[in-house]
Amino acid sequence: MVKKGDTLIEVVLAVGIFSMVAIAIVAVMASGTTGAQTALETTLAREEIDAQAESIRFIQSAYVADKDSGDNRFQKLWQKIVSNAVSVSGTDDEILHYAPKTCESLYADDGEVKNHNGFVINNFQLGTFTSDTIDRVYISAKDKPASFVQTLTYPRLVFNNSNSSLDSETSSANTLYQAEGLYVVAVKESTKADGYNPTTVVDNGSVTTRPVFYDFYIRSCWYGTNANEPSTISTVIRLYDPDAVIGN
Fold this sequence. Notes:
Layout: H1 8-65, H2 73-83, E1 86-87, H3 103-106, H4 112-115, E2 119-121, E3 138-140, E4 148-149, E5 156-159, E6 176-180, E7 182-188, E8 197-201, E9 207-209, E10 213-222, E11 231-240, E12 245-247
Parallel strand pairs: 1-7, 4-6
Antiparallel strand pairs: 2-3, 5-6, 7-10, 8-9, 8-12, 10-11
Helix pairs in contact: 1-2
């Protein structure tokens, strides 16, 4: 009795079906991996943004709480932050619309980070800094432009640079080396609030106008896995100036 084997056409058809199934399975696995990676990057970016928001709120609250205690380090830190706040007028509102075409454009010499005095807060130093070491807490693109760079992974703060030649500060686990894909811009209120003129009296008795509140735009930008378009997350918090006195 002669046994027949599979014909060439049947073999080719079987291999073709197997190949299509295998390709579909690999595509689903790749899509799932990319989705999981994107979700992880987004979560990490949100955590960094939330940490910056809480740090700024803490600085303002600590300044208010310590106003009469004689410990003025948070006052100096707050004043350092708001002294670099930018104004936004009706014709100069680019900062209000966060939709960068590329992450690289944000870090150019005329980009948002340098042009609007971007900064980050080193929250690891908040409990130990002194009036003389504010520059270890408040890291500004105005003073340290090289510390603000585009990220190759996800938005994050990098601490304790292993190459000491690139870091002028004392090396420690709490020393901020770079802010990658993450920054904050402080914007001061430039109009009269609710019809009142915000003023404060300085030590020499003169009266000077100052904002009632500041808006802090906390922003991130990075390229996700196999992505050509930038991923961005941004939030804004509004804090009132403890030194402003509302008057007619």
